[in-house]
Amino acid sequence: MKEGSGEEQNVAPSVYSHVSRPGSHRYKNAKKGLPFNVMLVGESGLGRTTFLNTLCERVVVDAAGKQVSSEQAHIAEPMQFKHYTVEMEEDGMKIILNVIDTPGFGDGIDNENCFMQIQEYIEVQFDEVLAEENRIKRNTKFKDSRVHALLYFITPTGHSLREIDVELMRRLGSRTNIIPVIGRSDSLTPRELVLFKQRIMNDIAQHSIPIFSFPDAEEGDEGDEENVEENAELRAMLPFAVVGCEEVINEDGRPVRVRSYPWGVVQVDNDAHSDFDRLRYVLLNSHIGDLRDRTHNEIYERYRTEKLSGTVPAQAMALAGDEPSVLEAMGMQHTVAA
Amino acid sequence: MSATEASGKPQASAGGIGIANLPNQLHKIVTKKGTNFSLMVVGESGTGKTTFINTLLTTELIEPLDDATRRKKQLDKTVDINIHKAELEEKMFSVKLNVVDTPGFGDYVDNNDCWLPVVDFIENQYEQYLRQEQQPVRKGIVDMRVHACLYFIRPNGHTLKPLDVRAMKAIGARVNLIPVIAKADTLSPTALRQFKKRVMDVIDAQSIRIYQPPVESDDDHSTQRNQDIISAVPFAIIGSTQEVKTEDGRRVKGRQYPWGVAEVENDQHCDFKKLRSLLIRTHMLDLISTTEESHYDKYRTTQMKTRKFGEPKPKKSENKKFREEEEALRKRFTEKVKLEENRFRQWEQKLIAERDRLNKDLEQEHNLVKQLESEIEAISNAGSPNNKFFRK
User: Fold this and answer.
1) Closest alpha carbon within chain A to B263
2) Which residues, 6 or more positions from A238, have their beta carbon under 8 angstroms from its beta carbon?
3) Residue B313: band (very low, low, confident or very high) from pLDDT cuts 50, 70, 90
């Protein structure tokens, strides 16, 4: 694992990738690197950018750089999609991590448009793959930019999900693997955190929000028992409580990633202080294969079926969720520029 | 009494006539009367408003909402105004305290105009007071004018959101606005300093009016303290009603984390004590008097310039939700009217048809009668020569 080296922005060149080949976490694409696309969504100030820097163990984005002038503070900035690519090495496996940040989400007074923009972005990636598959002569250098996982940052109110949280996860849950995350979780005491997590999961169940719930594999795979246990454990940890690292201090000669307060020091990699380490492991190691597989085999396939049978309406998807029969009944048309 | 001086002022005798005793008399009067203080808290849910109030008053004035109510509220899409009343008594001095809460503010996907209910409430209190003052009998005026409004800013560490800017502008123009950084225990000291500076920059650039406590005071100690208070704006606060034990064994009000205890009353950790001082210990009277003399007066002047004495305030409903409801109701009304009109028209048609039918029948009968009449005449004419013949 690379330690915080304080390097500046990484500029990895575009990489080769194979569109239709499923990847498992044991798949070693040593030379070329396994592409993994993650989208970060959440209101500003929840630690998205810091999370990105902490995940990649280097300053990928300078959070302080993007300040709006005070005179313009009353105008809401439109949402943007910012792309960052970092080469990571995890357990002997090379990963090309593509992160899509969404600054401006939820920052306006009326945020109705944000959901549609993200949905369109995700669908455009699917359309590109669809078009590529249907070509007579395929491009071997095709870059698969389908979103494999979407980390949604929840505000640590301590109460329950807000309207914007519910709406976003409901509308996008069928288009990508949503992993809910509590940002700035160091503002909650351990007891408050437990209650908050419970309430969130209750809300998610009540609204039938489709999130990535660490499903167990259907067929027998190696280490089956372990996997089932592991998945159950991860399910109980949802949503992951993360804290972003602001500095690296030296403790007994080892560098430790922390946040310092007058009343104490939060250790980012300490499982008692935050779930960051676990989440990192899930994303880059234990479940990278599952996330990629599910995106390709389930989510993309479903989208493909709907698109090709001519019943993919943008609005209906938001309303109907996973019910293709409802969509057919609606019979609305939708074309997305490929 | 000695003669007047050259300046023309009568000089009091060395003993004085006792004017200097007035403050003591005032003290007795005020102590007996007590005072009335209204505090408003505005901010998104989950910013610690309820906890702060309960911490400030060291009593659970506002009960935290239970889960079911909170979930329902999230689907409500309205901003409510809840008033909690309490009477505080300390050393024989009593204060009638009103706390106004605003659940639903800024909580939804579309928060357009969510500050309007807040602004309307503030202005309505001025209006109520104005009207009561104009009554022939002025005893027992109910004064709910808001003396201070705490605006809870989410500690996102970057800047004020457009919603905050617009809401604070509207509120600050009408009431003493005190910006507060909520849940400050999530910002490191450096980040907090930067955030405070950033917030004040935006407040200045956007011409948002916030409460400026008077600095100069009689003694240096007070002046210094006032300066401390002013330099801490916006106040970073942590709220907690629970007592916890710190590492060095003290029992304090605070929040217990695995990595330490964030203390409420520790000036190194947050500005709670300064804000409490501002609200209660040192500047409560100033808050009350600036509300009465400055904000209320401004409202009164503008209203009296445009309205005649005793005329009610023109109502303007700018609330988008109300407008939508109004539209929907109007549509339903017109539809209902249309339905009824159709029904009446059909009824009218039926009646006309009936009338025509009856007329026709009548005509037929009439013709029949005529026919019979003519037959009778014909028969009687034909029969009379027979009669003559028989009589011969």
Assistant:
1) A263
2) A179, A180, A197, A201, A211, A213
3) low
Asked if residue B280 has pLDDT above 90, the reply is no
> CB contact, 8 Å: A78 with chain B?
no
Task: Say yes or no for a CB contact (<8 Å) between B256 and A189.
Answer: yes
What is each CA distance from B57 to A16, B101, B240, B270, in whole angstroms?
64, 15, 11, 17
What pLDDT sits at residue A18? 29
* DSSP state for residue B263 in the 8-state scheme: E
CA distance B47 to chain A (A): 7
Whether the link from the prior residue into A239 is cis, omega within 30° of 0, is yes
Pick the closest to residue B143 from B223, B215, B59, B36 (CA basis).
Answer: B36
Work out the minimum CA distance from A166 to partner chain B, whole angstroms.
10
| A5-9, A259-263, B20-24, B329-333: the lowest-pLDDT one | A5-9
Going by pLDDT thresholds of 50, 70 and 90, the confidence category of residue A8 is very low
List chain A residues with CB under 8 Å of B107.
Answer: 162-163
Q: Across chain A, how many H-helices and E-strands are there?
A: 10, 9
Q: Which of B193, B65, B191, B188 is nearest to A186 (CA)?
A: B188
Please report which helix (H) or strand (E) contains residue A210, including its range. Answer: none
Among A164, A206, A267, beta carbon nearest to B109: A164
Q: Rounded to an integer, what distance in angstroms lies between the CA atom of residue B81 and that of residue B117?
A: 8
Give 3-state DSSP helix, strand, coil % of chain B, rounded to 5.
50, 15, 35
Residue B3: how many other CB atoms lie within 10 Å: 6
Token output for B382: 């034909």
A300 with A126: CB under 8 angstroms?
yes
Residue type (1 letter), A229: E
Task: Evaluate whether B40 touches B100 at the Cβ level (below 8 Å).
Answer: yes
Give me the pLDDT at residue A40, please: 95
pLDDT confidence of residue A74:
82
The whole-number pLDDT of residue B140 equals 80
Question: So what's the pLDDT on residue B99?
Answer: 92
Query: What's the burial of B337, exposed, middle or buried (CB within 10 Å: 0-12/13-18/19+)?
Result: exposed
Indicate yes or no: CB of A246 within 8 angstroms of CB of B188.
yes
Cis peptide before B234 (omega within 30 of 0): yes
Instruction: Identify the pLDDT of residue B208.
Output: 93
Q: What is the pLDDT of residues B334-375, one digit of tens each?
A: 999 999 999 999 999 999 999 999 999 999 999 999 999 999
Of all residues in chain B, the percent with pLDDT exceeding 90 is 45
Number of helices and strands (H, E) in chain B?
11, 9
Spatial CB neighbours of B44, under 8 Å, sequence gap ≥ 6? A157, B105, B106, B107, B152, B154
| CA dist., res. B168 & res. B236, Å (int) | 17
- d(C-alpha B190, C-alpha B236), whole Å: 13
In CATH, what is the architecture of A29-47+78-214+227-312?
3-Layer(aba) Sandwich (3.40)
Tokens of B170: 């509207």
Could you give the 3-state DSSP secondary structure of residue B276?
Answer: helix
In whole angstroms, what is the distance from residue B103 CA to residue B82 CA? 8
Element (H, E) at B248: none
Closest to B44 measured CA to CA, from B4, B84, B101: B101
Q: Position of tokens 């808050």?
A: B287
CA neighbor of A76 nearest in space, from A118, A30, A111:
A111
Q: How far is B56 from chain A (nearest CA, A)?
A: 20
CB atoms within 10 A of CB B38: 24
User: Please, what is the end-to-end C-alpha distance for chain A in angstroms?
Assistant: 38
Mutate to test the interface with A, among B111, B188, B193 (most CBs of A within 10 A): B188
